[in-house]
Amino acid sequence: MTTRRRLGPAVFASGLVALALILTGCASDPLAEQYREGSNKGYIAGDGSVTEIAEANRSNPVSFEGVTEHGKTVTSADYAGQVIVVNFWYAGCAPCRAEAPDLQKLNDEFEGAGASFLGVNVRDQAANAIAFNETYSVTYPSVMDVDGGSMQLAFSGSIPPNAVPTTLVVDGQGRVAARILGQVSSPSILETLIRDTIAEGK
């Protein structure tokens, strides 16, 4: 049986102060700004900015393992040698719902053509993820990461805390090559990032 304890007011307040101090040090960070605004969105959305990382500057390959909404285990080894588009999302996130059709369209375009899509659901249980997929006709799998957070931890160098959605393009060596922080509002940009990353391995 799981026991949950409430933090005392003093402990909770001190935690908020510490977080505020951390965020104050990042005054130009739009995520920090959204936190301070207290918009109560339930998520912190990115601004749609695109970051590309030159091959020579990419960090080490990311190793991951997780279980999808249908109970299948997936690992980074399953995607060895191919580009992966990793999208962090959850069902209650409005930008996630807005971008879902565009991501699925790109998934269809690149299926069998050098790139695979993999979702990472950061908040829901499997039933919610499956219902979302049915609503938006999403066919690629998602790792259910709400309990352990292992996927978020594996990609922590590329994903700001609480920035949902975030989409990463991972190269054939397992290194993050590009990031879209926030909703994929221009599918053509993501398509170009994917094509450029695939071309690197040719």
Structure report:
InterPro entries: AhpC/TSA, Thioredoxin-like_sf, Thioredoxin_CS, Thioredoxin_domain, Thioredoxin_ResA/DsbE_sf. This is Peroxiredoxin. GO terms for molecular function: antioxidant activity; oxidoreductase activity. Residues 53-199 form the Thioredoxin domain. One of its GO terms (cellular component) is cell envelope. The chain has 202 residues and is α/β, with parallel strands linked by helices. The protein has two domains: 1-40, no CATH class; 44-200, 3-Layer(aba) Sandwich (Glutaredoxin), CATH 3.40.30.10. It has six helices and eight strands, in the order ααββββαβαβαββα. It has helices spanning 9-24, 30-37, 94-110, 126-136, 150-154, 187-200, and strands at 49-52, 65-67, 73-75, 83-89, 115-121, 142-144, 166-170, 176-181. The strands form two sheets. The protein has a six-stranded mixed sheet, covered by helices on one side. A two-stranded antiparallel ribbon has the order 2-3. The protein starts with 8 loop residues before the first helix and ends with a helix.
Write the layout of secondary structure elements.
Elements: H1 9-24, H2 30-37, E1 49-52, E2 65-67, E3 73-75, E4 83-89, H3 94-110, E5 115-121, H4 126-136, E6 142-144, H5 150-154, E7 166-170, E8 176-181, H6 187-200
Parallel strand pairs: 4-5, 5-6
Antiparallel strand pairs: 1-8, 2-3, 4-7, 7-8
